[in-house]
Amino acid sequence: MSFKRPVSVLVVIHTADLRVLLLERAARPGFWQSVTGSQEGDESLAETAAREVGEETGLHVAASDLDAWGISNRYEIFAQWRHRYAPGITHNTEHVFSLCLPEPVPVTLAPDEHLASQWLPWRQAARACFSWSNRDAILMLPGRQSPAE
Fold first, then answer.
1. Which end of the chain has less neighbouring CB within 10 Å, N or C?
2. Cβ contacts of residue 64 below 8 Å, gap of 6+?
3. Does position 148 have pLDDT exceeding 80, yes or no?
4. Rounded to an integer, what distance in angstroms lies between the CA atom of residue 49 and that of residue 66?
5. Structural domains of the chain, with CATH
6. Any idea what the Cα angle at residue 104 is, between residues 100 and 109, rounded to 5°?
7. Measured in Å, how far apart are the chain's first and last C-alpha atoms?
8. Rg (CA), the chain
């Protein structure tokens, strides 16, 4: 059996005017989140982030298109998802990235992972997230915008 690695990425996809893409989890209807996923093989974190964006939204981006925040969060893995990890693994380290798009775009969801998508203003998106780390990343977006954006 192949276990998930307890290293993951969170990718907040947003527009310059701070509309944020959220995805509803198929396994947990009503749970909204940004793109997330575990590192595989010898991928760099940016490569993991780019792969997950493609898999979960159908948007194909290069690792260099992503902004690595240099922020990581360590959290306890929900009990119902621990079977995916090697025995004894209880915590995951998540690395935060973002992707700024010119405007909201339609996405193609992976039906086994997500039921729906929505673009929301950043404050509303933060309130909709079930994950504290996702919420906090969205709340940091205004401070990360450059004056040109």
1. N
2. 46
3. no
4. 8
5. 7-144 (3.90.79.10)
6. 95
7. 46
8. 15
Decide: pTM greater than 0.85: yes
Q: Which two tokens stand for residue 23?
A: 């995805």
| Per-residue model confidence as pLDDT tens digits over 1-33 | 689 999 999 999 999 999 999 999 998 899 999
Name the residue with tokens 């982030």.
49
> Which tens digit of pLDDT belongs to each residue from 64-119?
999 999 999 999 998 988 999 999 999 999 999 999 999 999 999 998 999 999 99
The amino acid sitting at 95 is H
Alpha-carbon 139 to chain mean position: 14
Q: What is the distance between the alpha carbons of residues 9 and 97, in angstroms, rounded to a whole number?
A: 7
Residue 58 to residue 108: CA distance in whole angstroms:
5
